[in-house]
Amino acid sequence: xxxxxxxxxxxxxxxxxxxxxxxxxxxxxxxxxxxxxxxxxxxxxxxxxxxxxxxxxxxxxxxxxxxxxxxxxxxxxxxxxxxxxxxxxxxxxxxxxxxxxxxxxxxxxxxxxxxxxxxxxxxxxxxxxxxxxxxxxxxxxxxxxxxxxxxxxxxxxxxxxxxxxxxxxxxxxxxxxxxxxxxxxxxxxxxxxxxxxxxxxxxxxxxxxxxxxxxxxx
Length: 218
Known about the structure:
Shape: globular
Oligomer: single chain
Number of domains: 1
CATH architecture: 3-Layer(aba) Sandwich
Number of helices: 9
């Protein structure tokens, strides 16, 4: 008799959990997130900020957990803070920043965490005009310390951009973003599988220091 009661309780508990998950609202779609980021960038470039989610209540709400709606792999350049570029607030973006927006193992693991555990539907690779890392890769030569690692990672994009019409640095910035986007889309096992299942969208963008606008790359 005791066994039957325990079994019934377990089944009821499982049913309650299942019902709880079924009732949970779905997160925003990739299209909705991209539309919000584009609108936020319009706010930034026209200086009509909304500054969402910056209240004490929002901060307290986030103490129990985070639910960002996008991950951004951005350059570490101080002039390109994603939360400001996209007019977002606390808890809205999961941001990874590194010079040249190049994903080494740590950055890749962070993006996998955002996609698989935080369920972000969008990853944005954000490069920018006049990137110092790309410029160094174009100019060549040896750099002190560990800085050469970044240049070596960017060099394939520079080589690919050579011969394109226009400014080499600008072309290499855009090519670098596209190559990183392609790399993330093909990164196995986690990101590539989620992209194939249409659970994750990876896009690129190049930020203009002059206008504040993001030129999107699909």
